[in-house]
Amino acid sequence: MDNNFFKNIEKKTGVNMKDVFDLASSLQNANFKDEKTVRSVIRRVSQIANREVSKETEDKIVESIVTEGKQLDFGTISQMINKK
């Protein structure tokens, strides 16, 4: 992809694309049945997005992923974080 494309995304969102790519890379072999791993990912995504996630919201996300088997992706986490 064109480097300008990513720079435009960074400008519009304030999210550093290197952080996003680093996170995506770290997720490739992560164990999403492990609560500690899922909590770590949620905290990292909230940090990258500069959004605070309440303990209640974090617990709901963890439950839906670890217990209910929902997919862990940026869309899922983003939707849950933005439901306030």
Automatic annotation (TrEMBL):
InterPro entries: SpoVIF. It comes from the Bacteria. Pfam families: SpoVIF. This is Sporulation protein. It comes from Cytobacillus dafuensis (Bacillus dafuensis).
